[in-house]
Amino acid sequence: MSGKKPREDVSIEFKEYHTPSSGIFFKASKQLYKQDSPYQKIEVIENEHFGRVLILDGLVQTTEKDEFFYHEMLVHPVFLSHPEPRSVLIIGGGDGGVLKEVLRYPVENVCLVEIDPQVIKVSQEYFPWLSPCLKDERTELIIADGTEFIGQTNKTFDIVCVDSSEPVGPSVSLHEEDFYQNMKRCFREDGIIAAQAGSPFYHLDSIRKKNGFLKSLFKIVNFYSSPVPTYPGGNWAFVFLSDKVHPLDIKGNPPEGLKYFNPDIHRAAFSLPNFFKDGLD
Amino acid sequence: MSGKKPREDVSIEFKEYHTPSSGIFFKASKQLYKQDSPYQKIEVIENEHFGRVLILDGLVQTTEKDEFFYHEMLVHPVFLSHPEPRSVLIIGGGDGGVLKEVLRYPVENVCLVEIDPQVIKVSQEYFPWLSPCLKDERTELIIADGTEFIGQTNKTFDIVCVDSSEPVGPSVSLHEEDFYQNMKRCFREDGIIAAQAGSPFYHLDSIRKKNGFLKSLFKIVNFYSSPVPTYPGGNWAFVFLSDKVHPLDIKGNPPEGLKYFNPDIHRAAFSLPNFFKDGLD
């Protein structure tokens, strides 16, 4: 769509450092996109095994091959727990993976609030699932800062999915107390929020800090986790927030065709290992 | 112990390819050991985050920082399920991580059968947990090929832990049907085997093949999984084998002081995601 010719550099290697002395690498058969937006550095590479890989500010956001782990686990646990979700808000998630999972349900409307229109444009070009989702009549795309949107909107939602990138660049405010405080404004009585929460293995200090302020804002705060092969440590934390709904009080059934999620996985994901439980307080 | 002086190469980078175009890397602040044994290439590097890293034939076996995920998950699920484990066999596991976990229980004897004495020697030098475990009077160290030991021994065991490396080099036979067929000889009526089984994300074809012959040999064949940050995909499969004991019929309590495992994690680990369940048949 942009008409840009892919660069045919077969010897490019992309590295993401998970610690100052270790990380993950991908050989790129093509560097499909590399440009700075006003918000962040956006790259798309083609890897033989993972397919297209979206990288923001040097951090892998999603790959064609393993996107389902993260996107299914941010979306389906909250949907399984909610009695009748109609109205959904996605903060971030410009690559459309979360939107794709939400639209599997008979919801009435989905607001996708993404700060960076260039992420939308790039993802439409390189990730096949986004364009059909944006064409779905239930989807409303809003280009805005998620924190500002939350502070100003009059809408209320049954489910909010916070698909932020890590707390660098434009996502910093999406990890702070004010954001979650404001979220309560547009959150229905039996509403549920799911947010990505980092790596239990690498980011336990920031998870502990987040747990501290979340417990003062929400009656029900439950962390859960899932494998995500291309994220640091290969395992990722999410947090389930509600004032009324308990995650293990299952209300519905998952849609057909999922690659990762099922009701047994739902229950299992909320079982935390000792170091994670001990690290929350 | 060997008196070898560590090499002070601070710029060494170790890479493990998980696919031909992607993998994990570690900067080594020191290359502590690098020698070929008659069986395999043995390396130990020092990494700032992970501490000492044992690498066999180019594949990370264990690190000081994250060893607990794998070692706890190979040992504690079978112990939680067995009514009274007294006699334990460990095949492979020369680094001692599995032995360390087994010795937390009041077992009567543990046979560690490792083919490569050089792995034992190197691990005694570089991994702090091994030497005390070898000094424990319940431990019997046998330097032998695991397959031959299984075919010849007159001993029987309550629990067998198969801590093989991947099916390259000396571990090839530990992944084959004959090995498991012979195992039944030295396996008590309510015995349980736990074996590492590879990455659900990367090695599903070999897991499927293994499941095929295991189901013809054992009445109860249950795969389970756990995060292991430094293994391919960050998530690892194990298999629980028995003719009598069901893994979710919990018989005991885990010991104090574990970093990963607890009874909730035990139940959760046996819940498989859709792609893994579908990939078994």
Give descriptors for this structure:
homodimer, 281 residues, alpha/beta, Rossmann fold, four-stranded antiparallel beta sheet, disordered N terminus
| Element-by-element helix/strand order of chain A | EEEEEEHEHEHHEHEHEHEEHH
CATH domain class of the largest domain in chain A: Alpha Beta
Cα(first) to Cα(last) distance of chain A is: 49 Å
Structural class of chain A: alpha/beta
- Give the C-alpha Rg of chain A: 18 Å
Considering DSSP H and I runs of 4 or more, what fraction of the residues of chain A is helical? 25-40%
Strand content of chain A: 25-35%
Which oligomerization state do the chains in this entry correspond to?
homodimer
Give the overall silhouette of chain A.
Answer: globular
**Chain pair with largest interface:** A-B, 40 and 40 residues
Strands of chain A, count: 13
Main beta sheet of chain A: strand number and arrangement? 7 strands, mixed
Number of helical runs of chain A? 9
Q: What strand order characterises the main sheet of chain A?
A: 9-8-7-10-11-13-12
How many structural domains in the coordinates of chain A?
Answer: 2
Report the CATH topology name of the largest domain in chain A.
Rossmann fold
Low-confidence residue ranges of chain A: 1-7
What does the average pLDDT of chain A come to?
A: 93
The CATH homologous superfamily of the largest domain in chain A corresponds to: Vaccinia Virus protein VP39
